[in-house]
Amino acid sequence: MKEALLYEKLEDKKVCCNLCNHHCLIDPDKTGICGVRLNRDGILYTLVYGKVIAENVDPIEKKPLYHFLPGSYSYSIATVGCNFQCSFCQNFEISQYPRLYQGRIPGEDISPNVVVERALATNSKSISYTYTEPTIYFEFALDCAKIASSKGLKNVFVSNGYMTKEALDLIKPYLHGINVDLKAFKEDFYLKICKAKLKPVLENLKYLKKLRIWVEITTLIIPGLNDSESELRDIARFIRDELGPETPWHISRFYPQFRMLDRPRTPVETLERAYEIGKEEGLYFIYVGNVPGHDKENTYCPKCDALLIERYGFSVLQNRLKDGTCSHCGFEIAGVWS
Fold first, then answer.
1. For the residues 12-18, what does the mean pLDDT come to?
2. Which of 18, 103, 138, 177 is at a distance of 20 to 30 A from 329, taking alpha carbons?
3. Domain 51-319 has CATH 3.20.20.70
């Protein structure tokens, strides 16, 4: 075990964890909501430091990040645990593992140096902290990110966006990109479905933009829960007004998962309507996900409508960008291109 960052010691050997916006008050010999931060005798420890449960070499498009080193590979890692309890989680086997298996913490013991060595050996251009919520293995991710940055690798979070601003300030020098799940635009959805709150996610998205970390947004559209035209329009307007119209919005197709097996997969027509809503509200880059081969997974110039990046699923078929600009009209395309 490793002593955790970002916590406060209180009376009677209690601690308050300040890593995420749950701000768990943890009694001795108990863990927080995530199940992987333990109070032992008034000291908070992370139980998942170096306990890697998943590692793969993924296309960066799988995160999904479409404006971040397109066509490159990202060495992707995770530990068990999550600070959300989403009933539709596609990675519930590992994200909810401590909750499902009486606090057990499986994983291969790997040091940050070895993670970086493996990333370099696979010719990856970045390391992605993904699959589960990277905030809950923050200490490990931070140590990996520091070494990775020194070796010329970039670092990416795929996150629910629930970390504290203090956590973002710590990792800011080493974090280059993030995809945040904006799961809905109603507090009721977050409280019932995710056991969390919406407001901290919205505040963090604005803060990430202020920190100049590259941000892309994903919304998994679930029939009957977050697919109304008014809610989708609210999300699009928030992205436009608070993050900028150049911020990519990934609208993704729901498939029944975990404890949410009673709803059908999202009709493609719903995704296409969400796409049109985003366009109507002035967003430059909207992508339809989980529908391989759909023509709305390509990148077009917002000014002249030229096809710039052609994709099929997670593969880049053609990239016509020229130094981050449209090769036809010269319009600057927002993103991280080198």
1. 98
2. 177
3. yes
